[in-house]
Amino acid sequence: MTDLLLRGGRPGGAPADVLIKDGRIAAIAPSIDAHGAQVEELAGRLILPAFIDAHCHLDKTLWGGPWVSNTSGTELVQMIENGRVRRAEFGVPNEDHVTALLEQMVTQGTSYVRTHTDIDPEVGLTSVEAVLAAASTLEGRVTVEQVAFPQCGLLIKPGTAELMKEALKAGVGTVGGLDPAGVDRDPVGHLNIVFGLADKYGARIDIHLHDSGSLGAWEFELIIERTKALGLQGRVVISHAFAISEVDGDQQDRLVEALAEVGVGLTTCAIYSDPIPPVAKLRNAGANVALGNDGIRDLWSPYGNGDMLERAMHLAYRSFFRSDEDIEVALDAATYGGARALGLAGYGLREGASADLVAIDARTPAEAVMARPTRSLVLKSGRVVARDGGLL
Ligand SMILES: [Zn+2]
Fold first, then answer.
1. Distance of CA 57 from the midpoint of ligand 1 (Å)
2. Tens digit of pLDDT for each residue in 66-100?
């Protein structure tokens, strides 16, 4: 692989050249003289670490397909049922739609994706297979990690746990869960299965938790207890996590401290008027926050375009962040926070890290979030995979 020199850019903000060798950042310095290297002139563009979508649902997408007016109702159970009943009508999952959405994400500068893939007795593992096929088409441009996700419930849909086990045996690396109380109505039973599978197969955990108020907060405690007992620190994520923003201040403080201490992270998508976690408080306490798009153009939602800068803007806006420093906290959830959630040790804008980078015409990271210009250059493992918004 020919060395690549990014000349005249501003990695993180300060002017410097970036030398890339064998897919990794070999040097970041004011002026690098690299003979024989391919050169990309960045003319002062900002360089950011590539984005991480830590929570989406690729298998559900209709991206590139027909426009479908949403019919899902507003309650969670209505959305689940609508998605389940209508998916066959639109040929969901569809490998081509998944591929098209991944291509869109790459052009927006996303380099890693964690996607929650539906597993239930009706679809079996067909969604897992469709996502795998699309991910292999885009191999080298984006890394896709699947979560074995019981979208229709776990205990209330007999056979689902066995299918999740099959998915884990086939290489899916993360176990999902869904509202252990609100959907499955048996929090202890649900979590024992999820944590049992993670323990047995060495998998990570990422649980959808919409359950609200004191019920949801109690489920936080159950998750924290099990994480501690099984030594899964740093490997467990609660997605959406509405309850933490709904309990009183003292209880919120205790939960924040426990999350930080035990290494359970949160992932938010900052969609609609759904509750978002107290991002600044969590970060100050040392607890991780990641960010994702959730569903994109599917039977659940007509919204979304795969752009993590847009998601970061929504998170900043919903958090009432206005200073550059605060807006960078929201952007961090779309970059380093996502890397921590997914356990990506080799990620970052530093020497030795994988050269997963985005160059963009903005003066500061905060301006990038507010203006969201076309991505000038996107690199994955040192390879240019998109230029000026077009896939290469
Ligand atoms: Zn989700």
1. 6
2. 999 999 888 888 998 988 989 989 999 999 999 99
